[in-house]
């Protein structure tokens, strides 16, 4: 009689306990997605540069009612704690010192896909939709394209927009914030 091997899935609480116990450290580039620990590759220069450009654009709109959350975790219980490249969060009195943001706190999440493009599109974007993140963007670094996902639901996002490279775009929740795609992707070989 054969034994069926089963995956051991972790909850967000168990994931945190792995950190407290020293099993996972700040040196480990892992995310918890649907109960599984996912090893993330190193961040390359194009990826880092695009995240930095986006961060500057959003930080420059200091009068807007949001917090820029760069490469930090979102708590999506019971079994996910991804680290999007950038998220715009609703302000909270404690500045998220008391607990990590959840999907209800997110105005926009952005993933920069280069070596992880398929994973971001096929795993992370549907994860955000399932948990009710209203809008997600996926920057395809190699093709210099943006995919804008809107109207989330348990089955995924119902709207996908692919603006032209010369367009200027805005998040749904923040129409005064304008991203010039031509400038964003400038200089990428």
Question: What does the model show?
Answer:
There is one protein chain. With 189 residues, this protein is an alpha+beta fold. It has one domain (43-185): tt1808, chain A. Helices cover 23% and strands 23% of the residues. The protein is built from 4 helices and 10 strands, in the order αββαβββαβββββα. It has helices at 12-20, 45-59, 117-130, 181-185, and strands at residues 30-33, 36-39, 67-70, 86-89, 106-113, 135-140, 145-150, 159-161, 168-169, 179-180. The chain has a 6-stranded mixed beta sheet, with helices on both faces. Strands 1-2 form a two-stranded antiparallel ribbon. The protein is globular and about 60 Å long. The protein starts with 11 loop residues before the first helix and ends with a helix.
CATH superfamily: tt1808, chain A
Question: For the residues shown, what is the average pLDDT?
Answer: 92
The gyration radius over C-alpha positions equals: 17 Å
Name the overall outline. globular
Question: Total helix count?
Answer: 4
């Amino acid at each position: 009689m054969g034994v069926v091997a089963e995956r051991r899935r972790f909850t967000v609480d168990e994931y945190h306990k792995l950190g407290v116990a020293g099993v996972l450290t700040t040196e480990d580039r892992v995310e918890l997605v649907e109960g599984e620990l996912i090893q993330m590759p190193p961040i390359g220069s194009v990826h880092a540069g695009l995240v930095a450009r986006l961060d500057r654009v959003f930080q420059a709109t200091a009068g807007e009612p949001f917090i820029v959350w760069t490469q930090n975790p979102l708590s999506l219980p019971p079994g996910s704690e991804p680290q999007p490249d950038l998220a715009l969060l609703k302000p909270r009195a404690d500045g998220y010192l008391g607990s990590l943001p959840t999907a209800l706190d997110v105005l926009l999440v952005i993933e920069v896909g280069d070596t992880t493009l398929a994973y971001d599109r096929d795993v992370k974007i549907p994860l955000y939709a399932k948990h009710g993140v209203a809008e997600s963007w996926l920057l395809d670094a190699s093709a210099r394209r943006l995919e804008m996902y809107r109207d989330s639901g348990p089955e995924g996002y119902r709207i996908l927009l692919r603006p032209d490279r010369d367009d200027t775009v805005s998040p749904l929740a923040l129409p005064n914030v304008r991203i010039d795609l031509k400038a964003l992707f400038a200089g990428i070989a």
